[in-house]
Amino acid sequence: SVPLVLMSLIALSLVIWRMLLNGTANTDMDNFLPVFQQALRRGGVKAAVGLCKEEKRLIPRRLFVAGLEAADQGAAAMRRSMANENELEIVPRLHFLLAPILAIAKIATMVGLFFTVISMINTFNAIGEQSATGKTKEIGGHASKIGLGLFATAIGLFTAIPLGFRHGLFKDWISRFATKIKASSHKPIPPLPNL
């Protein structure tokens, strides 16, 4: 059960890390956009870029900066720049740690089942040896070994089920966040022609 406990601890660490990353990616656009648009109107593109670079969140720091840096080439270049930033930088960052979380979820079940099968083979071999020697009265003592073997499967499932559930929630969050990014990529562009 030591490998399964280690897998559970690693998985817990990955899930916590991923949750922290989700928290740092989120931007409250209702609060940020008025400040951003005011900086854009008052100080131009340079002030807006400076504001976005100070922000720690993903959308202003990566998406808006990419668009604003192409502002001198027009709105179409801004949209292309933001689309490239989204596809090549932001989306891969959003999927960070999802593959290891899913891998541990799948492997934990198999490892638990593997240890259960090994334990059952050993238990049945011991029962077979005792039966061959005529000590059939001691077979009942192996029930605890069978229970211990099933415990490995239980630990594997205990690790895999929450990880699979968490993986699904992360994928849902990424999908919603990607929609938010697409919507946000059109928001800074309208004020630019008025500069």
Structure description:
- By secondary structure, the protein is mainly α.
- It contains six helices and no strands.
- Helix 2 (29-54) crosses helix 3.
Low-confidence stretches: none
**Cα-atom Rg, whole angstroms?**
27 Å
Structural class: mainly alpha
Shape: rod-shaped
Order of helices and strands: HHHHHH
Give me a quick take on this structure.
This protein is mostly helical and 195 residues long.
Task: Give the topology, please.
Blueprint: H1 2-25, H2 29-54, H3 58-69, H4 75-94, H5 98-133, H6 143-184
Helix pairs in contact: 1-5, 1-6, 2-3, 3-4, 4-6, 5-6
Index terms:
rod-shaped, 195 residues, mainly alpha
